[in-house]
Amino acid sequence: MEHAKDVANGAQTPQSSGQHTSINKPQDPMDSTKFREAAHAAVDEIINYYDTLPSRRVLSSVEPGYLRSLLPSGPPEDPEPWHEIQKDIESKIMPGLTHWQSPNFMAFFPASSTYPGMLGELYSAAFTAPAFNWLCSPAITELETVVLDWLAKLLNLPDCYLSRGEGGGVIQGSASEAVVTVMVAARERYLREKSEGLEGEAREDKIAHLRGKLVALGSEQAHSSTHKAANIAGTRYRSVPVHLEDDFALTGRGLRKTIEDCKAKGQEPFYLTVSLGTTSTCAVDCFEEIAQVAKDYPSIWIHVDAAYAGAALVCGEFQHHTAHFSAFDSFDMNMHKWLLTNFDASCLYVKRRRDLTDALSITPSYLRNTFSDSGLVTDYRDWQIPLGRRFRAMKIWFVLRTYGISGLKAHIRHHIQLGDLFHGLIKSRSDLFAVLTPPAFALTVITIIPRRQRRQRSSIPADRPDPAHEAYTNDFTPDATNQHLIDANALTKEVYELVNSRGEIFLTSGVVGGVYVIRIVSANPMAEEKYVRRAFDILVKTAEEVLAGKEPVPRENGVEENPLVKMPVPRLG
């Protein structure tokens, strides 16, 4: 219809005119001169944005659907100048942004962004290519191989994960994408091993029979991406229980029991996610114990999810965690969380790259070329689920070179110190806060403590039942324990929601082992001591404000209304 309309309005094609005509290139609304002007203006605005981040409300306060009413119903018919487009960023886009780079952002985990990383994205956009094989742009593939080997050595990963052997690294979009990728590889490896020696229909029947028995495993505190990956891979998922006394870490005994339970039910565990830094509390699973269990079940693929905390491995004091990684099949960490590289830059390593390529390689005729057929080059399309891929190695290269190893270590250690400072501040107010688990990787997880009921002199005669007496309030019974948890959870949630509603800082919450908690992590590039102390002051003020509103109201007979019972609070870290 649009073509017919254009012709009706006088536009002609060589076919419609009946004679040869030259084909004129349409005018570019942004030529190199205009691009230089626009780029300068954009860079100035980005710098101003970062300079003003501390003073901006960190959490967006817009309502769902706010943007549609501010924008036209469709794109403009004619080109618009850059200055008209740019002014809409502050007026229309900025109100709907949550400022992840703000020093007052202490929620989730950080999503780093730095100027070297931005420059890498700029070049990547300029050199844009789908990069599905080496021939698309050899530099894109080869730089990725080199910088991921650099990073593997920096993180103290075993040599089996380096490209010079059977392993190697590949950049994925996210840790969740990495989990899906390796789970598919794990599934195919397991089915291939269990059907070895069979051919034709017998092999197909064996594989079909096994598929219905496959089960992926992860601890109760493993990221939800493992469960989602199992759904995508078409297998069952089962979580392995973890406990507070183990700081919610996955243990060897817990893993072995779950595997044995699955086997007893005729199920076939084929994959396990272990964690270096769980989402809720940054727990570190018991890798040595798990490695011992793995010896008895060599067909189970074990993947180390170190999405956030893996960045700390650049520092020698954390590198003991990698001592048993050679017993595992894959490892992934996100540079875009804590290591100064903007999203997306998830670095996946496999011990045996053929496990990926055997599961994911399909080569139609239009993708064949002499270099790929020779086997002398890497085609990263066979290491991932999508075909095309971006030039993400450029920004990693820029970041590693700009900061150097010393700069990366200083960055991590600075945040560890801020986390220790915050933990110390929390412990200084043990009347208000309890720490659920020891602080880890700059993360502190807290609850608010309900105040004990005020003891007043009873006006009830001694020969009559007193509702305020401990025999009636159940101070030392299991019911008191349960009620305290209910009260503490409700109180912690109220404090958390009030803090976030005011927008001075942004935190996240969660439920860990039935306990409602507030998570605080200050680990983006703009984090400083003054912002951590301010966050503590806000939490103290808000907790005291909420608790003041919870003070029991005395009845006329002197018995307090709705008294809060006492119990041992969650362990202080």
Describe the model.
By secondary structure, the chain is an alpha/beta fold. It contains 18 helices and eleven strands. Strand 2 (214-219), helix 9 (225-233) and strand 3 (236-240) form a beta-alpha-beta unit.
Task: Name a few traits of the molecule.
573 residues, Aspartate Aminotransferase, domain 2, 7-stranded mixed β-sheet, 4-stranded antiparallel β-sheet, 18 helices, 11 strands, 10% strand, globular, disordered C terminus, carboxy-lyase activity, PyrdxlP-dep_de-COase, PyrdxlP-dep_Trfase_small, pyridoxal phosphate
- CA radius of gyration is 29 Å
CATH superfamily membership of the largest domain, which one?
Answer: Type I PLP-dependent aspartate aminotransferase-like (Major domain)
Largest sheet: 7 strands, mixed
- SSE order, one letter for each helix or strand: HHHHHHEHHEHEHEHEEHEHHHEEHHEEH
The CATH architecture of the largest domain is: 3-Layer(aba) Sandwich
- Which secondary-structure class do the elements indicate? alpha/beta
The CATH class of the largest domain is Alpha Beta
Q: How many domains make up the coordinates?
A: 2
Average pLDDT metric: 88
Q: What percent of the residues sit in helical stretches (DSSP H or I)?
A: 40-55%
The count of DSSP E runs of length 2 or more, i.e. the number of strands, is: 11
The shape, in one word, is: globular
**Number of continuous helical runs:** 18
Organism: Cryomyces minteri
Pfam family, one: Pyridoxal_deC
Family: Belongs to the group II decarboxylase family.
Region (Disordered): 1-32, 456-479
